[in-house]
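Postdoc handover notes: sequence design on the structure in folder B. Input tokens:
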């Protein structure tokens, strides 16, 4: 009979069942930890499928080998210290997985995780110490992995922010926003630097817009008003005069930002200093204009071609000669003006020069606007960059029709004279 106040058999059975359940729970957790973190390990160490399979094989083989060995040794030669050693082995394995810097360390960590030793340990150790230690180890592994991922993500974000700042500085792009409740304007550091505003200066949109040139001020006022009232985004170019008097050409884009109720509360966007770009475009346009004036003043036809050999420019003299509407049409249809008997020879010579870079020289007849074909001497040379690549072809066409006819007449006269002398 059970003594009054002593432990009952049912209580002991429940305690054993509870211990067994906890052991199996931890056993299943231990088995699933490694497989659960495979995606994290694969991303962190760029593992291949065969490397992940080898880790699984190492984990399963060591567990299968240790199970009969541990059972045989502990049954014949009880060794209580083997239990803490087994727990230490599992703990070391988990720590290695969390702090591994190479694939071999991952393999060693997987082999040290022995679920059979851990299971026996729970059956024999009291007060749940093994459960607490192993749970801490598992949590440490997971926290360490997620901490590493967090540190890596923060480093990537910092790198991206640095690249964004460098890109903004190089591209001369900055951000801005208008708080419609206060009317204050916020500038990014780069936007403030472009506009000449101190980083800590607070200004209103009314004050900021007063720096735009008169016509630009009216245009940007209309654009922002439409954005505020109707939510219409804008993207246009405006002239802005800094406090030091320098004039900037800005590309300004803006769009509305709404709250949860659908009300427009901010206007935000970006601005870019395109002053140098516009000055370069103006200089290029002026150079092109001067080139056209110079070539149109020449007594012969001047033309240019792309590196591929496609004609892309002819002077006004060729337009007047052929009767085409403009230079663009004349450049596109110049082949149609070549005499049919000369077309094959002229095009073959041009294709050969454009593919090899050799100077081009040919004589053929162009059709004039009145239908008459006149002989021309057509020459071209390639222009090269510093790497030796063709960047453009420059050519000319000179009317040699009269001299060609004179040569033919002289040759005919000489032939007649020769025939006369031979017949005497």
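Designed sequence:
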């Amino acid at each position: 009979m059970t003594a009054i106040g002593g432990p009952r058999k049912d209580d002991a059975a429940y305690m054993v069942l509870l211990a067994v359940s906890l052991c199996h729970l931890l056993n299943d957790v231990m088995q699933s930890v490694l497989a659960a973190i495979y995606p994290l390990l694969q991303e962190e160490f760029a593992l291949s499928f065969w490397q992940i399979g080898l880790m699984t094989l190492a984990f399963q083989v060591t567990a299968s080998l240790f199970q009969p060995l541990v059972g045989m040794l502990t049954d014949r030669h009880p060794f209580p210290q083997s239990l803490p050693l087994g727990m230490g082995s599992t703990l070391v394995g988990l720590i290695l997985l969390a702090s591994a810097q190479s694939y071999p360390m991952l393999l060693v960590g997987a082999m040290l995780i022995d679920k059979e030793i851990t299971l026996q340990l729970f059956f024999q150790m009291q007060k749940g110490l093994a459960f607490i230690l192993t749970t801490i180890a598992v949590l440490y592994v997971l926290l360490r992995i997620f901490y590493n991922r967090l540190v890596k993500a923060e480093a990537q974000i910092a790198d991206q922010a640095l690249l964004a700042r460098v890109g903004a500085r190089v591209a001369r792009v900055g951000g801005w926003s208008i708080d419609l409740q206060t009317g204050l304007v916020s500038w990014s550091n780069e936007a403030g630097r472009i506009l000449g505003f101190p980083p800590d200066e607070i200004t209103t949109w009314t004050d900021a817009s007063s720096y735009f040139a008169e016509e630009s001020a009216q245009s940007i006022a209309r654009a922002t008003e439409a954005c505020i009232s109707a939510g219409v985004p804008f993207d246009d170019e405006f002239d802005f005069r800094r406090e030091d008097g320098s004039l900037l050409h800005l590309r300004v884009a803006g769009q509305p930002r709404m709250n949860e109720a659908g009300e427009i509360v901010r206007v935000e966007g970006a601005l870019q200093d395109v002053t140098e770009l516009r000055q370069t475009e103006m200089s290029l346009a002026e150079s092109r204009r001067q080139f056209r004036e110079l070539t149109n003043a020449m007594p012969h036809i001047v033309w240019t071609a792309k590196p591929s050999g496609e004609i892309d420019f002819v002077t006004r003299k060729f337009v007047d000669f052929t009767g085409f509407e403009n230079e663009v049409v004349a450049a596109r249809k110049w082949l149609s003006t070549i005499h049919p008997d000369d077309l094959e020879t002229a095009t073959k010579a041009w294709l050969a020069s454009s593919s090899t870079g050799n100077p081009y020289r040919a004589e053929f007849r162009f059709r004039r606007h009145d239908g008459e074909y006149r002989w021309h001497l057509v020459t071209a040379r390639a222009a090269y960059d510093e790497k030796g690549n063709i960047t453009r072809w420059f050519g000319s066409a000179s009317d040699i029709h009269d001299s060609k006819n004179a040569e033919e007449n002289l040759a005919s006269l000489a032939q007649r004279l020769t025939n006369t002398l031979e017949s005497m």
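Context for whoever picks this up: The longest strand covers residues 247-258. Don't rerun without checking with the PI first.
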